[in-house]
Design a protein that fits this description.
This protein has 498 residues and is α+β, with helices and mostly antiparallel strands. It contains eleven helices and 22 strands. The radius of gyration is 32 Å and the shape is elongated.
Amino acid sequence: MPAGTLFIPGGSTYTSMDVDDHAEELASTLGVDKAEVKSDLENLVEYSVPVDEAKQSIRRKYGSDADDGAMPSTKDVDAVEVSDGNVTVTVRVITVGCRTIQYQGDEQVIREGILADETGTISYTAWQDFGFEPGDSVTIGNAGVREWDGQPELNIGQSSTVAVETDSVSVAEHDLPCSIGGHTSLLELRPGNRGRVVDVEVVEIEERVINGRDGQTTIHSGVIADESGRLPFTDWEARSTLSSGETFRFDDVYIREFRGAPQVNLSTFTTVEPLSKSIAINKDAQRVAIGEAVDSGGVFDVEVTGTVLEVREGSGLIERCPECNRALQGGQCREHGTVEGEDDMRVKAIVDDGTGAVTAILDRELTESVYGGSMDEAMTVARDAMDKSVIAEEIRSRIVGREYRIRGNLSVDEYGANLEATEFDRTDDDPATRAQSVLEEVTSWVLLRIVVKLHIDSSQLNLRMRHYHTQQVTMNGRQSMWWHQLVGELIDCLLLGH
Ligand SMILES: [Zn+2]
């Protein structure tokens, strides 16, 4: 038991104690004679002074810090507010996650997780080991309240007390973000979660060497899956026991955000136990609308369906920096300057489904597949044409205006939303036919109006194009694509005519 901890097995609130108990407690904490304290206390209580106030007066009389040991108010969890200085709560421990922090130059183990009662849940940080475990019912006295991420959080430190309750505290289990103990499905994990338990199959695993604070460190990273979905993971301890195709229970993992999506992290405190059961892992990606996925900030392993509106610059045959793998621009790496580039192939395609747009990024393998030939073949074609851009042009003519089902990892950064594709397949229905039917619906007067508008105000061509673009996107992705092309062709006509 660390110093400064008052642990009262089976104890409940102080008000149920009698004057003798209170006197004993005061005498021992103040280091004074019990009889003297008891007489003071009895006097005050006789004058109808509430016992908590009476105790505080006595502490003041004997020169103890007035706040030290002052009884904070007892609250339901959902009534705890950031403005509360300190509180007492009677709760069930839902999760306990351990973490090492640097405190005044020393490494210190802290515990974090969730507490709950019938009214709600609250997160906590315990700065020392109070010995409580998931499932325990406890009364936490004098817990500090601080704000974390806009919510109140309990700070359980040296001046706090933790007393085990013999009666189990009931909680609204269906409102909990995980089971009592921390079991959570991968789909329900959120960045910031701590002390969680997952039963998973390791789907992919690789060894990586990273440059950490203490020099080079070997870690393991990969993908895990359960019945609900898949997530990336990192094992900072590079345990040799993990291998792909095997199932494990990871107890005490923490979740961080990686490219907008949750990432499961195994620390030195995580226990890894092989499972004898197999897990029916979900092999399908989550199907979502592009707008929704972009709004969420990122999704690992997602499937969208949309129309390719455009093939962006930097597609087709490209060169990469041998140092950092960045695509070169004009033979230059942004970080390493002039380098001998390595050939590669990729596609950056803008895909729209009517709710939003992403840039789908196809690796060499997928690019070869949409191009319909190997990179060597593409290099030969480019050499013969003495122009690399013919490859991007060929890809453009094959995929723009067509609908694709795309699976991959979606992330959002300051430049927009990217979808790193792992699958890129034509959908069954033929959008060319649909585009044709849209064309037939367009009446001649609409066409005429566009021509007249562009002709009158050619200085604002770009603005107007964007206007038509967004207006149509909200209606239908395919129509938008078609309008975009049509307006482009009209502009070409107009400009040539001038
Ligand atoms: Zn570089």
